[in-house]
Each structure stands twice: as structure tokens, then as C-alpha cells.
Amino acid sequence: MDAPPGRTQLAPASARPQQREDALGEQRRVVGIKGDRQVLFDIAEVIVAEAVGRAVWLRTDLGRFRCATDGIDKIDDKYASCGFVRVHRSYLVNLNRVREVSRKDGGELELTVENYGWIVPVSRRRAKFVTEALGL
Known about the structure:
Blueprint: E1 29-34, E2 37-42, E3 46-52, E4 55-60, E5 63-67, H1 72-79, E6 84-88, E7 91-94, E8 98-103, E9 109-113, E10 119-121, H2 127-133
Antiparallel strand pairs: 1-2, 1-5, 3-4, 3-7, 4-5, 6-7, 8-9, 9-10
Protein name: LytTR family DNA-binding domain-containing protein
Domain HTH LytTR-type: 34-136
InterPro entries: LytR-like, LytTR_DNA-bd_dom
């Protein structure tokens, strides 16, 4: 069917260029804010997401950026399929960036994550899930 004069007819969805998407069809980009800049990251570039109140801070190889989306629960829901695991009420960790797992006295777990600068605690109730997700 032809489009009315002056209107463009869209190509069928199958003929349109595909956006970069993950298996669930969601885009793998996350927006970080630093000053007046908005920086686009592929979710694989994010090492740790840390909640401070409602704000979420992204730790990346390029530094620390505030996430454009507030609420760590929203980030958790959106990027769980991309290798992120909630290890603590305040932390999501990219499992592909974990380099060491250690046990403190009392059996509590801690993760050493590459290029992060400090240890990420694992809550007791999430410890079993985290070790299973890491294949330990």
C-alpha cells in the first residue's frame, strides 16, 4: 500500500536496521552523568553499581559516574540478564569483573573486583547464590 502524498511509508520492521540489543531485547546501554556530561556505557563496561540513598553510582574503567536511573532495584531488574548480581543491598557486581573471593572470620564473603579499588561485601543471605553464580 502506498503512503498518502507528503508522508513517508516506513519499511517493515524486518527491513529496518537492528539496534544492538541483548537476548531479552533490551538495550545494553546505561547512561552515566558526570558534571554536565552524559556518558553512554555498554553495560559490560560497568564494574560495580553502588547505591547511596536513591542515587546509584557506577564504577567503570573511566571512573565514577552517577547513573541517570535512580534506584538500585531498577538497575538490578534491568541488567540481571547481563551478568550483574545483587551481592548486598547496596551493591550490584558485574560477575565477569570479579577476580577474588575471600572469607572473613565468621564466614562472611568479600569480593575483589578488578579496577574498583576496594573490597565489595557479600551479605550472608546472598552468599550461597553468589558463590553458585561464580561457579564455586
